[in-house]
Records
---
Amino acid sequence: MNNDAFEPKIVAFLCNWCTYTGADLAGTSRIQYPPNVRIIRLMCSGAVDPTYVLKPLLDGADGVLIGGCHPGDCHYQSGNYKARRRIIALKEILKSAGYDEDRVWLRWISASEGQRFAETVTKMTEFLKEKGPNPMRQKWAV
Amino acid sequence: MRIIIPVESGDALAAVRGFLKRLLEAEVVEAVLVPMETPAGTITPALVADPDLLDAANPLAPVMGLNAARVAGHVSIREPRGRIGAVLRSCELRALVELVKLQQASLEDLVTIGVDCLGTYDVAVYNAMRADGGVDLAAYLATARSGELAPQEGYAFRDGCQMCEKPHVEGADVTLELFGADLSAGIPVTLPDEMAEKLGLSPAEEDGRRAEVVEKVVAARTQVRDARFAEMRQRLDQEGIEGVFAACVRCHNCMTVCPICYCKTCLFKSPVFDHEPMQYMNWARRKGATRLPADTMLFHLTRLNHMVLSCVGCGMCTSDCPAELPVGLVFRAIGQQVQAVFDYVPGRDVEEPLPLVTFREDEWMEVGEE
Ligand code: SF4
Ligand code: SF4
Ligand code: FES
């Protein structure tokens, strides 16, 4: 496939208090970033069940971004610390089950880091363009 | 204290039954949870309060139809409850430890009675053996002495048992130490001193044979395990999980029989996965076709994420898969890798928190900061 024509699809689960607000700030500040990301707002990164990440990946999304508050800043104290462990386990499982674990990104982005949000989406989009489409796009027998 | 239960006329089973009866009669416990022979000749766990009925107890029968940790949870989870002696194999004890951490069992009023495991058969195999000449219990128990564990000629142990490197009991209140013992003469048992006193038992000498035989069994089984893990990892790399689980019929047996799967109602049996008819159409259009029932690999990957850190390798999932898929092998092979990341060994220590409910602030500090 010609990767220039390939536009990756990214599903992002963002915590309400930090990363979602950061994304909003990127928008209101008119910071440019690729339109490849579909944002789903959750109350906390700690509310991301592994199933939420797996479902889009198996359906053919090219990447999943999980965004939360920086360590120490979670509005529910420890949601992001637990999310960190859960995502580490998830990536290890994906890897050992024969999938690309690097399609899953966890990033801490605060409410004031609109610029960091835009950069993260830009980097992720470039990375996935380089990597190519998720093979799951073609696989119906999952 | 280590004692020896004397075995008369080579009948080890009678000696074990006698020991369990003593526990009831001396009121060490009020009931015993133990595998029992049903009138039909099959084996099932039962909670036994009447010592006379322990004549049907058979914790030495080489069959495992379910992991009894789950039922040990049922009888212990909340007060008021009885004081129960639970006779369990090593994989059941490990599962029990995990269930305590998952708040689905309690050790408060439980006396765990662990029995070294010489290998078990699937229920269907066990029944076939009974129909066809019978199960030679004496020959089976004789393998404990040397540790050269082998199934009866013409039959195979459960897949999970073949690669089980932890068949020996660790950390039980009472341990029936089969490994290294001449079970036609006596059964070595370790138990708390005050319990031995209550039972009027006196200490026997330690001969160190069990440790020696356990080491040998562990080495042999580890070799099998590692070979099978390597094979499975290669398959997973090549075919992915959708290749290995291609024949799955989504019966959910693997989840139902897993002693660890802890959700009261599985997400995959909940309305979350009752999709609208048009949703299936959309999926079919997007990929050209969509497997039904939908979300089959999602089911397996979710189960891995929810419980693989606690997988004790009992192999019940493999035993009960109608499609004969190597479910337990997949879970064990992946489990080993994920458990290593968190330096976690399921069943090791009831005080050790589950990796996904605990955290440290100063770990994996680089994650999320790129
Ligand atoms: S996943 Fe299979 S091997 Fe692991 S604990 Fe559950 S039933 Fe036993
Ligand atoms: S027991 Fe086997 S066929 Fe049934 S859901 Fe599990 S893997 Fe699929
Ligand atoms: S509220 Fe943002 S990670 Fe918990």
---
Amino acid sequence: MDHAFEFLVRQGDNVLVLGHRLSEWCGQGPVLEEDIALANIALDMIGQTQLWLSYAAEVEGANRTADDLAYLRDAWDFRNVLLVEQPNRDFAVTIMRQFLFDAYHVPYLHALESSKDQRVAEIASKCRKEAIYHLERSSSVIVALGDGTEESHKRMQAALERLWPYTGELFLSDETDDAVAESGLAPVLNDVKARWLQTVQSSLKDAYLQMPDNDFAQIGGKSGIRHSEHLGHMLSTMQVLQRSYPGAQW
Amino acid sequence: MYAQMIKSTGQGVKSDEQMTEQERAFQARIDAGEKIEPKDWMPDGYRNNLIRQIGQHAHSEIVGQLPEANWITRAPTLERKANLIAKVQDEAGHGLYLYCAAETLGISRDELVDMLHSGAMKYSSIFNYPTLTWADMGAVGWLVDGAAIMNQVPLQRTSYGPYARAMVRICKEESFHQRQGFHIMMAMCNGNQAQKRMAQDALNRFWFPALMMFGPSDKDSVHSAQSMAWKIKMNTNDELRQKFVDETVPQAHYLGLTIPDEQLVLNEDTGNHDFTEPDWSEFHSILKGDGPCNVERLEVRAKAWEEGAWVRDGMMAHAEKRASRKAAAG
Ligand SMILES: [Fe+2]
Ligand SMILES: [Fe+2]
């Protein structure tokens, strides 16, 4: 297995899948300002996808493009964590999922800025600027809605509990994580976890939300071994034109 | 247009003698090309007319997100996906500027939204047509945003300051949308047989609905006469429709597409194209609520609003709590 390719695809797939999920909200947000903000984050994430997957395709050297990787792989070749493929459900789940990911994304990208690979460092630096804004936004919404009304608090707590089992996968190192940490391409995940936890604890406290004391983790996304049922449906929508009209230029 | 069949006072334009002194001074400012600002005195008719027009325009931007959002999750490349998200996001932004412009006239966004959901206010007929293939993303950008530009460019000179300024920002983005739509069409027309078929089919379905956007002929309408005297409407519907046809026909030829109108011909005497009028009974039935997507479009918007109530309430409650905590902390 080419660990560098695997690593790059993981980065790209996380933002592709999450960006796609956010884009499902377009035109249907709870309030115009949130609609615009979600679209903005989706847009950033699709842009980040292009950077990561283009580089992945180059590293692979098999004459594939970023679009080929996005549109012509099946679910088992996707390498995103399970967290990002979870369905939007209500706004509480959407924004909590976003917060839990952003809180990881910012320190992770920060660490990647010191990657031995210059190109990875550059992409990470560009993405981190956007991720910082995403985190500012998602954490402030978490705080507002956790505090807000009885109903908004209840929904946010429920969303947190529902998504919590999907956070562990972000930090459980596997062979690829170990290999890219070893080679200086990417950080040791445990170091990122400490910063993630700090952010999560402090925002949840401000939001009057209770952090679940359960460290059970659902895994299988970033290895591609066992995605959720949801990913297949997402891809069948996302890839429909490329699959139906092979080779067409759009 | 994004605002169709707007009712004015219904009384026709007042003559100099019929106007009060205040009204005469107001009309003189408009005639001199001055901008009316929110704090200025204005006739009730002017205010109400503008609320209807800007409100309908804002609703059109918001409901207008839906036919295109319908394809965001199926956009065929990462670049097309990003462009389409950006476009739909722009439309939400247009809605926001326009609601803000309407608010300067003394009506809240919530009131306007309620009127949309209750059917008391309309949005453009065009958004009640379905988007069925990817080529529709091309046709909508090219024709619908194209038609919107025809109407909105002159509105940059409209007499109401906040509306004119909103139009300046909006027009820049609309012309970008139009180009983006045209590029999608171009890719389809240079593509395989299926893509060419999609492109022609999209033009077939959107041509007459696009012509309807300008509204029925209003050369004899008292409402339009008053709106034009107040410079909140700058051209007649027929003028704009003609301009749209004249500009669009060569673009369709360039794409290798056929406009679905056998009567369409360049009139050597006028230099304009003669064309078939759209089916106005279809237009009126859409305004009544019987278009192919009226029910669904409103349902989606109303559902988003209802399901978002807890979010809006939560944010409001948090803001209030925070303010009172701050006050308590002294
Ligand atoms: Fe617009
Ligand atoms: Fe537009």
